Fold this protein.
Amino acid sequence: MSLSRKRNIIVRRLLQAVPVIVLSTFIVFGLLKLVPGDVAVTLAGDNASDERIAEIQHIYGLDRPFLVQYGVWLWKAVQGDLSSSLVSSESVLSSIERCFPHTLLIVFLAMAMALIIGIPLGIAAASRPGSSTDGFVMTVASLGVAIPNFWLGMLLVAFFALDLNWLPATGAVPISEDFWGAIGHAILPACALAAGGIAEVARQLRSSLVEIMSSQQVRTLHAKGLSPSAILWRHGLKNVSVNLLTVISLLFNRMLAATVVVEAVFAIPGMGNLIVNAAIHRDFPVVQGVVFAMVLIVVALNLVTDVLYSILDPRIR
Amino acid sequence: MTDANRTTGILSRRDILALAGGVSLAAMTNLPAFAQAAAKKGGVLKIAAPANPSSLDPATGGAGSDHSILWTMYDTLVEWDYDTLKPKPGLAKWSYPNPKTMLLDINPGIKFHDGTDLDAEAVKFNLERNRQDPRSNVKADLTSVESVEVTGPLQVTLRLKNPDTALPAILSDRAGMMVSPTNIKALNGDTNRKPVGAGPWKFVSWADNASIVVTRNETYWRPGRPYLDGIEFAIIPELATALRSVIAGENDMSFSLPARLKPVIDRAKNLQVVTAPTLYCIQLYFNYARAPLNNVKVRQAVNFALDRQAFVKATMSGLGEPATMTLPSSHWAYDKSVSTLYPHDPAKARKLLAEAGFKNGLDLTIGGYNDQDSVRRSEVLQAQLGEAGIRLKFTRGTIAEISGQFFATEKKYDVLLSAWTGRPDPSMTYALGFDKGAYYNAGREADPELVKLIQQSRESEDLTERAAVFAKIQRFIMENALSAPIAFQYELDALGTKVKGYVPDLLGKPKFENINLA
């Protein structure tokens, strides 16, 4: 594949990302304004009065038309200013800078676990479909999908943190300050997050591998006299890599979303925590900022996936 | 749990107090002195705090959960007695030369963390700012103040529009937290995140939803204080997680826990548990400006239908006090004669409903919150009122959503199941919840007699006289059934074994000044 084609794909995808970002922030903004509740009530505090709430709405520009409020936010965001929290006045950018590494660490760790454990399980199951190994792996995988991650999280804490005292039960340490401390804090939440991922990787890998192994191409390879293991490792896995890539990219997005729950269970001050707290108080600059950052990550990930697709399978343009 | 004795100690102390009234007060004030003698200095206390503060500027913030954090950095002009909330001198002593003049005499030699003198000018600056700054959330607290004058280097005189003896208690709250004028002027409006006060600890850092750190104020004006070198708050809104962090030893203390976590604390080894009464009152708010709750018989029927004892048992594991008015029995203005107005009597409730024209029962729309504890309460409530023929149709959502719909302009629902967190002075509770046009009075209407009584409750300086007026207000509110108080929630805190000297307060918002680490 030529370099210019690769560049074309990237530029096209980036241009497509612009409307996605604008539309998603607009929809989230709309949702925040549509649901009942107003940040002015939070700001007015416990001793609120009707006059005080109206006054606050005026001070913060909350009484202006919906589109004007969105327009002001968007105009600032385009210039790189994500505003500040209406409630605590912390700059949204610095909140995100602090929170995002915590979330990404858990997701990457969970992803690594999902692949390191899920891929061998999937291969083991697919190499002898219908065997007892296959049955065992698929049962475990079904369990992994079915178990809610917050419940698993609590069990993990009860056993590994409170009973055995091997790992911390709550909190997070910035990875820039203390690498091993950060990993230690991230292991349990990552496990809770990874359970579903392991199951999904194993199941998807198994089913596509089984399909490939029963294809005419594989029959021909057998006829050519290639050993079964060579067929599996050299031809089978290469053929399922595109499928696997799709699973990984979808899984990453889903894990990012699931951190909202896992972070609450483990008291990790990450993006999930940030957006939940902001949404409760209708603190829209923070919610918008988090959504903005998440959309950027997802768009970037899809871009990488697309480029990898075209490398793994030259037929994809 | 290793400190069961301490718990029962606290409870029985309160019981004695309730029985003996003011007599035991003098004895109680010796307690902190005793704690002081045994206290050890040093160490950093790690606390799991249940909420991110709305602001670290007392004037601009608004959440009731802020106080515990604010008090570490800000001292107040007036303080209160932990057990009864009776006001006592703080940074200043107050007096009323006449009903429309209040004098504040500031203790000499106090400085803010930045070295600015805490003198009459500084106090005047604070009170004027609280009264007039557009961003101030405490303006309403100081409406009775006409002018603030500096009448000496350490004396400020407040001229009042009308007599207001709630002011001492008001000055123990946000309005009395003194901020450094130098700092506020330098910050030029952006005051939420750089606090400078005169409290026992100085601000170090605040990361939203993650942590707040404060460190010892070496020049604190109270000799020998503070005990702790610093406090690190970890902000953990999920309270079961907060408790786990204490069990795992990552934090030393977790406060304002729900009663359902009590068995978890009891099971854990090496934890102390503290429970104590608070002003936090779970109650039904009525919109009595419109049918059907504009009929007093319907409101009374709801009150008779409630089985408050059973409610406390079923939803709070017994860690509460049945509420027969908006003040708990240990409060200085509690009036026992009001407490017997509404025994549990479903038959009486049915009879009242029939008299009001609802022979076949009555449907009421009610708003509630969607957290675990609120849902449980709403189910018990539904069963209790159902027995008397009152069918509740619940709509559940977040606090911001549902309370906004009920109290603000929409006026949805007849009833709201919520709580009143309490205020240092009872008159604040009545002014905010029942006065004409008050936000927490959903219908905005009020009987002229009640309005007059609320006004009257701020006229006398004498607590006995004030208590008599509050008794009248309580009787009026309960006889007219303007709300249905259900239960006072006990404070529930979990402490690591090395935490010594913690004293809970009736407001239910912990102060950490007495804590020392063994």
Notes: The mean pLDDT of chain A is 85. Chain A is about 80% helix and 0% strand. The first helix of chain A runs from residue 3 to 34.
